[in-house]
Amino acid sequence: MSKLLEVKNVVKKFNTGGLFSNKKLTAVNDVSFTLDKNKPEIFTIIGESGSGKTTLARMILGLESTTQGEILHEGKLVDGKANRSTRMKFMQSVQPVFQNPFEAFNPLKKIDQYLVSTTRELLQIEDDDEVKTIIDENLQKVGLSHTEIMGRYPHELSGGQLQRTAIARALICNPSLLVADEPVSMVDASLKMSIVNLLQSLRDDFGVNVIYITHDLATAYYISDRIIIMQKGLVVEMGPARPILDDPKHPYSQLLKASVLSIADAGNGQLQPATDLIEIVNRNEGQIGKMQTYEGSRHVREYS
Amino acid sequence: MFKVFSDLMRYNIEFAIGFFLFLFVFIFGALSFFSPVDPTQIYMLVPDIKPNAQYWFGTNSRGQDLFWQMTFAVRNSLLFGFTVAMMSRVLSLVIGLVSGYAGGWADRILMFVNDIFVSIPVFPILVLFFFVLRDDLTTLNLAILVALLGWAFDARLIRSMMLSLKHREFTQHAIFSGMPMHKIVLKEHLPYIMPIVFSTALANMIWSIGIEVTLAVLGFANISIPTFGTMLYWANNHSAMIAGIWWWILIPVVFIAMTFLGLYLLSVSLNEYIDPRQRLRRMGGGS
Amino acid sequence: MSDVLTVNKLKAYYIMNYFGTKREVRAVDNVSLTIRKNEIYGIAGESSSGKTSLIKVFAAAMRPPFEIVDGDIKFDFGDVKIDPYAEDKSKVDALRWSHFSYIMQGSMSVLNPVRKIGKTFEDFALKPMGVSKAEFIPLVIEHLKKLKLSPDILNSYPHELSGGMCQRVTIALATVCRPKFIIADEPTTALDVVVQKEVLSMIRGIQQEMGSSVVFVTHDMSVHANITDRIGIFYAGRLVEEGPTKLMFEQPKHPYTYHLVSSIPRIGDTQRRTSLEGKPPSLATPPNGCRFHPRCPIATDKCSQENPELVDVGEGRRVACFHSDKVKPLLEAAQ
Q1: Structural domains in chain B (count)
Q2: Chain B contacts of A98, Cβ < 8 Å?
Q3: CB distance B10–C20 less than 8 Å?
Q4: Boundaries of domain holding B245
Q5: Which CATH number belongs to the domain containing residue B132 in this structure?
Q6: Are the beta carbons of C275 and A190 separated by less than 8 Å?
Q7: Partner residue opposite C279 with nearest CB, options A161, A245, A271
Q8: Each residue of C99-147: pLDDT tens digit?
Q9: Rounded to a whole number, what is the distance in Å from the CA of A100 to chain B's nearest CA?
Q10: Burial letters A230-246, b for 16+ CB under 10 A, else e
Q11: Dihedral over Cα of B181, B184, B190, B192: its sign
C-alpha cells in the first residue's frame, strides 16, 4: 500500500491577542489520518465554524505551517516555504478548490489565464494548439465546452459554472489529490448537486482522491467514503461515512445529525432543539478523552 | 482609451469641466514656446500698463508683458508638479508593493522609514534646504526634494491594498495555477493598484504646486524663474496691492485657482470611473 | 381574515446609467401576493431571483436607482392602514419597529459594537413603545424572559456574545414592540446547524405567541420546510409558484419547485440527485416567454413565446406554468 497523504498527530496553535500576549488557541488538536494512493476515495471532514477544518485543509496545502506533528505527501514533508521547483512538483499532485467561486477568479481578468497558466507552468507545455486541446479535454470532463468558458469574465458565468471551471483547472495537471473546502456552500441550490456529482465522478472515473470539507451532513452522506467529524479542533468520530451518519456514536455527532433540518415532514415544523444532547455535549466540553476503536474500523472519542 | 474618454466627457460633468479647465491652462502654458520675449529680462516695456487690446494682461512694475510672463509661469509650475508627482509615485509604488508583498522584516523596516517621512514637517525642512542650497536650489532639485517628502502616505495606502490582495482567494488560485509571484503582482494585482496611483498622482500635483507657491511667495525659492509662486512674490515685492496694480495679483491667482480646480475635478471624476467596483458594475457584473 | 400586506402587480426595477451603459434590471416583475395575519410566509429563490429586492420594497427601504415602476403595495396593521410609497416618509418611519420590523442576516448591522445591548434597546424601541424609561426596562426584561434570554445580556457588549446569541438578541429587539409584521432576511444563514435550529425555533415561538406575520427569506429549502406556513418560489424576478408548505413539498406543480425539492440530498437516502443545466438568467436581459424555459426539461414551443400567468389551481395554490397539471409525469418521462 503506497501512501498518498499522511497526516500525523498534527497540532496547530494560533496566537490570539496582541504582540505580547501568550494566549494560544488550539485550532487543530492531534489529528491523524492516511489516504491511500491506489484506492481513490472521498474523504470528508465535517465540522462547524471554529472546528479547525479549514485550518487543517490549509496545512495540507502547505498554506499554513504545523505547530506539532507532520504532514507527508508521498513520503515528503509538505512545506509551503520550500523553493519554487519543489512547490511546483507538489502542486502538480495536490490541487485546491476554493469555497467562493466568485472570489477565486480575479473579477477584472478573463478566466482563460488560470487554465492556460496551469497547462503551461505546471504541465510544461509550450505549443499553443496542444495547450488548447488539453484545456478542452479538461473542460469536457466537467461538462463544459470551450466556447462557454474561454474569453469570458467571471461575472458572465454562474457560480456553478465557475466552480466547475475551477475543478477543470485543477484536473489539468492530473492531480492525485483534490482539497475542496466547502465547494458548494456559495453555489445556488439548483446547481449545487452538479458540483457534488462531479466530485463523485472524479473519484470514480478519474481516480482522484478528494478531501471534501463541509458542514453539510446530507451531501457528506451522499458522496463520502470515509468521514471525520471535528469539534473545536478535535476529531470526535472517524470511520466509514454511511455507518457513522446512519448511527453516530459520539454525542456531538448525534447532536449534529439531530440538528439537520429534514424535509420529510414539510409543513409541520420540527424545530425542537435536542436539549438533552446539547447538555451532554456541553458537559464534555474541554475534556480531551481518548479515541476508542470499534468494529467496522470506527473510531469514537470517549471520556472517562 | 478613446471610448473611456468620450464616455467620461459625455456622462460626467465634473470630468468635462475639469478637463477643459486643465486643457486651457495647459495650452496657455504651451504658448510659452512661441513667446517673443525672454521672461527673465526686465524693463523691456513701459511699466504698470492696465490690460488693454495690445497687452491683454497688462504689464507689471518690472516692465514685463504679463501675458507672456504668465505662460512661462504656467509651464514651469505644471512641469514642477508633474515631475514631483512622477517621482513620488514611483517611490510609493515600489515601496508599497515591496513592503506589502514581502512582509516580515522588510515590511517592518520600510514602514518604519515610511512613518518617519509621514511625520516630519515638510515646510520647515524645505526652508532649511533653501538656506543651505540657496542658488543651487534649481527647480529640478526642489522637485526631487518635494518628491522625497511626498510619497509616504500613498506608499502606506498601496501597501495596505497589496496586503489585502495577497490574501484574496484568487491570489491563492493563481499560485496553484503555477503563476510565478512577480507575474501575479504585475498582472493580477496592479490593475487594482494603478487607479490609486493615477488619482493620487493628480492629488500629489496639487499638493506639490501648493508647496511651491507657498515657498516662492515667501521668497524661499529661486525667484528668477517665473512660476505661480514667484509671480506673486514679485507682485508683493513691488507692493502691487497698495500701488493699485491689481491685475498683477489677480491674474496669477485666477490661473492658480483654475489649475487647482481642474486637477481636483479630474482626480475626483477619474477616481470614480477607475474604481474597480464601479468598473465591474459597468461591465455588468455585481448586482 | 384580513391581510397584513397586499401587493398588487408590483413592478420595481433598478434603472441604472453608468457612463452611457444603460441597464434596466427587472428585479421585481409583476408580483402579486398577500401576507396573511399570523403566518410565516417563506420567500425562496436563488441568486438574482429578486427576493432581496422584493423585501427592500416591503421594508420601505428603496433607494435610487431602485424604484417602483408600476403596481401598488398596502399595509393593514389593524389600527393603521398605509401605502408606504404614497405617504410621507416620516409617517412610515413612525411605524418602524412598532408596527413592522426586521431581522437581518448579520446582527452587526443592528447592534452597535460600542454600545451596551441595553442602550441599543433604548435607541430602537423606547420611542416606538411610547413609555417612560422607568417602565421600559421591566418591559424589556419581561420580553427577554419570554424568549428564554437572561436579562444580564442588557449589560454586555455585542462582542462579548457569540454569533448565535447576537442573532437571538436581534430577534428580541425586532419583537420587543410586538410588531404586526416582521421581515426576516436570511436570519440563520451564517449560523451553524445546531444554533440554527435553536434560532428558528425561537422565531417560530415568538411569532405564534404574538400572532404576527413573518416574511421569511432564505435560499435553503429545508429551512422553509420546517418554519413556514406558505411559500412563494421566485425565479428571475417573478413569482412562479405559491402555496401551503406541505403541498409545495409533496406535490410541486412548477418544474422549478419540483427540481428544488427533489434535488435535496437526505441522510439515509443514496438515490442520485441531479442539477439543472444552465444558469439563472440575468435580470437585465431575461429570456422571452417563461423565464425558466431555457433550463426546463419539459419546455415546449409555447413556453419560449408566451409568458405563463400565475393562475389559481385550488387548495390555496397558484402556479405559473402551462404544464402544471402534469409536471410530475412529464419530468419523470424526460429523465
Answers
A1: 1
A2: 169, 172-173
A3: yes
A4: 2-46+53-283
A5: 1.10.3720.10
A6: yes
A7: A161
A8: 989 888 776 678 888 889 999 999 888 888 888 888 999 999 999 998 8
A9: 8
A10: bbbbbbbbbbebbebbe
A11: negative
